[in-house]
Write a structure and sequence with these properties.
The chain is of the alpha/beta class and 239 residues long. It contains 7 helices and 9 strands. The protein has one domain: 3-Layer(aba) Sandwich (Rossmann fold), CATH 3.40.50.300. Helix 2 (92-103) crosses helix 3 and helix 2 (92-103) packs parallel to helix 4 (141-155). The N and C termini lie far apart (44 Å). The protein binds adenosine-5'-triphosphate (ATP) and magnesium ion (MG). Adenosine-5'-triphosphate binds at residues 15, 21, 41-47, 82.
């Protein structure tokens, strides 16, 4: 039987109990799965990821991670935030090393061989080796996004929460970053939950695609675009 990684039951997610962003949320994600979440801007996708990461408390309901009631332990959960959260004056190397040090348990020592190895390997996997010593503030948006991804890969987490991590990348770089991350997930039997606004890309990368809209998270139903638009219009016009 597959192991449960994220289990959420009867939950309300958001910031105000009177107006939750997501209602009656039930979600089960197992080890080894890649799940993509799409939906309109401002609907609550980032808030859902931050709730799973333990950064936003649930308004109601129950959540277990890896079958436990507690937050993920150190290094177990990797988060690539939409706003990246990099240290802007520090170098690429330093930022990625921070990720590696999160999980090289007990080795709080910047010269740890394992942490250095993982740092260089992840920087290389993201194709930014030549920028290793460059401060983040001097990088392009897409390069910064790749640093945030490298930081999470260097951490070697069991679950990755990735928020629009393929933004600002050209097609070729995007394919390369995507394959490095999905390879990591597949070879390590890890789990990936990714917020991805591009539906065709989301369908291609994920085992399951979920759509967040109107406070509900539902499986994506494949329909011709014209039908989706007309259903949406019907809903908006209440007919
Ligand atoms: N810390 C906060 N406190 C109160 N409201 C917040 C907070 N963070 C986000 N919100 C609100 O919650 C709503 C959902 O925001 P969220 O960032 O989850 O949307 P999103 O689906 O990720 O959008 P996008 O696709 O634009 O990234 C927005 O209306 C936003 O203003
Ligand atoms: Mg968002």
């Amino acid at each position: 039987m597959s192991k449960s990684v994220v289990h959420i039951e009867n939950a309300s997610i958001g910031f105000s109990p009177d107006e939750p962003l997501i209602k009656n949320l039930n979600l089960e994600i197992n080890q080894g799965e890649i799940v993509a979440i799409a939906g309109p801007s401002g609907i609550g996708k980032t808030t859902l990821l931050r709730t799973i990461a333990g950064l936003v408390p649930m308004l109601e309901g129950e959540m277990t991670l890896f079958g436990r009631n507690s937050k993920a332990s150190r290094g177990e959960l990797g988060y690539i935030p939409q706003r990246l959260g990099l240290i802007r004056h520090a170098s690429v190397y330093h930022n990625v090393l921070m990720g590696a040090l999160t999980s090289t348990a007990g080795v709080w020592f910047p010269f740890s061989f394992e942490a250095r190895r993982r740092t260089l390997e992840s920087i290389d996997a993201m194709g930014i080796s030549e920028k290793k010593r460059t401060p983040i503030r001097l990088l392009s948006g897409g390069q910064q996004r790749r640093v945030a991804t490298a930081r999470t890969l260097a951490q070697q987490p069991s679950i990755i929460l990735a928020d629009e991590f393929l933004g600002e990348l050209d097609e070729e770089t995007m394919e390369s970053v995507l394959s490095k991350v999905t390879n990591y997930v597949r070879t390590n039997n890890a789990t990936l939950i990714v917020v991805e606004h591009d539906i065709s890309r989301a369908k291609r990368m994920a085992d399951h695609l979920l759509i967040l809209d109107d406070g509900q998270l539902n499986p994506f139903v494949d329909q011709p675009i014209s039908m989706q638009i007309s259903m949406r219009l019907d809903k908006e016009l209440n007919v």
